[in-house]
């Protein structure tokens, strides 16, 4: 069966291998097959200016859609792909497709903002990361200032000194950097101020907790920290108007979530852009960090 899914080797299971290990191997083979068959596509979720309601940019989110099994959730395959290292190849596909698509939207004058692409720890640590990104930007003819990269605390804290170095190289190209899922990992404030970030994304878990005073205080504190570091704050997973109103009071600048839109296929996002209309979107200009 594993061979049918495109694996090149025969798999022998024995009793000592638990169900989870078998499942992991099946997913690994599915991913290998999926990469060969081009089953990985990119969906896009809008990021909106909390005050104007204008589109600022979008996050590129990988989707694994197989003819036989339908959609396989990132929650299922990303952890496996991280473990096996396949995330590096998946990440390269996502980066290329996202840059290609956004270049097309820019050429059609439907979009002038930034696309955010998630980088896994393994991808971020690649010694040739910057060269890979340069190649993709060159091939797709997307100007670097239209690209943002999202990395997590876990990724940068694995080797903070190396991370700072890589981040500076990326910023020197005009690429924006966002700290994703902020507050869920471990990162020290001492390091946070040294990371050359543009944006801090507050994890959905904190947004969900805003129905309590404690939760609201927490978000207030995170926004204050971010602003003290001159970072723009994006709230993730905003689903309700009430959350949006609270976030506005707490001086959060950008929201992303089902309240505005779920992640959309490129076809659906094109329609979303057409509805937004070009004058209603925010234009980015080249700014290179001086670090
Ligand atoms: P993330 O980068 O924090 O992405 C945000 C996740 O929250 C996405 O889940 C998005 O669909 C979901 N989301 C956004 N707004 C809402 C909302 O209002 N309600 C709810 N319930 N969910 C919302 P998704 O697409 O399933 O991705 C999950 C995670 O998988 C991502 O979290 C990211 O860590 C990872 N991931 C996704 N695409 C990529 C990729 O291309 N490369 C890498 N390395 N990781 C990726
Ligand atoms: Mg993200
Ligand atoms: Mg996130
Ligand atoms: Mg997340």
UniProtKB/TrEMBL annotation:
The keyword Nucleotide-binding does not apply. Keywords: Membrane, Transmembrane, Transmembrane helix. The keyword Acetylation does not apply. Signal peptide: none annotated. Residues 24-277 form the EAL domain. This is PAS domain S-box-containing protein/diguanylate cyclase (GGDEF) domain-containing protein. It comes from Alkalimonas amylolytica. The lineage of its organism: Bacteria, Pseudomonadati, Pseudomonadota, Gammaproteobacteria, Alkalimonas.
